[in-house]
Amino acid sequence: MPIIFSTHPLHPASEAMMEATGELRIASAPDGGTLLREGQGADIVIVRAPIPTAFFSDAPQLRAAVRHGAGLDMIPYNEATAAGVLIANVPGVNAPTVAEHVFMVTLALLRQFRPMDRDLRAKGWTTGRAHSDHASDLGGKVLGIIGMGNVGQAISRIGKYGFGLDVVANSRTSASLPNDVRFLSVDDLVATADVVVLCCPLTPETTGLMNKDRIDRMKPGAILVNVSRGPVVDDDALIAALTEGRIRGAALDVFLTQPLPANHPYLHLDNVIVTPHLAGLTEESMKRMGLGAAEEVLRILKGELPLNLRNPEAVEHYRRRFPE
User: Fold this and answer.
1) pTM above threshold 0.85
2) How confident is the model over 105-124, as pLDDT tens digits?
3) Which domains are seen in the chain, by residue range?
4) What is the distance between the alpha carbons of residues 149 and 311, in angstroms, rounded to a whole number?
């Protein structure tokens, strides 16, 4: 039976689909050494953690790396392609979930939820209620979105039609923007928006995108929300701006180092909401992502190409390795 190796447990419905087709193995831990050791002999790897480049150097049976989700930065693209290993993903299925998270944390920051909840519990009703003096409505604000893929589009729709926000955006191509969304350069967007949402993929161009200069351009009452990847933001510049009160706050779901170290400054700032890379994770989204990944696995094991093939240049080499 083919071996399907997953870096993490999957939704039970997804696991059941794959167990009916092959031997499903779940990594005992998601670190590189464990993945290399326990993933030997796999026909397909399902990716929810960074895969070491060495995973593809001696893997004669490996047909594909299937991302449980959309972002491909956990898969060494060049090494997989050179080895004739197909790369697939499940784009878009968790976009509504991420979008809901974005508005949850944005509203929590605007309404002072974190310090209000803490002080209500520790100091009483009056002290908690006093935080409303610094609370703010979301309605009437400008929402700036950097990255207009499936997640950006979902955020845009909720912002525009749910809250009546003026939505501006930046994307690699302005043609990808809906007609009712204005295109701005990144520099103009961060200076214009009251809420800046990062949901762009991690690439060499987006690494360090929110640097000191751009953070300094943000409005004093602005909020930064990052559901992209940690390296998109210059941590030192953001921490300085938050500590000095030069922007209102930040909601961060992703970080340069994950898990976030226990002594990290973000954990000690009242104007920061931190979440452990779970913006796209709910019972429903896990099922959608898991079933989507399982469907791609089954296609590949039948000799078909994945529906969401991301490295078509590998197909010729792949066909030589696995002639049908």
Assistant:
1) yes
2) 999 999 999 999 999 999 99
3) 3-91+283-321 (3.40.50.720), 95-274 (3.40.50.720)
4) 18
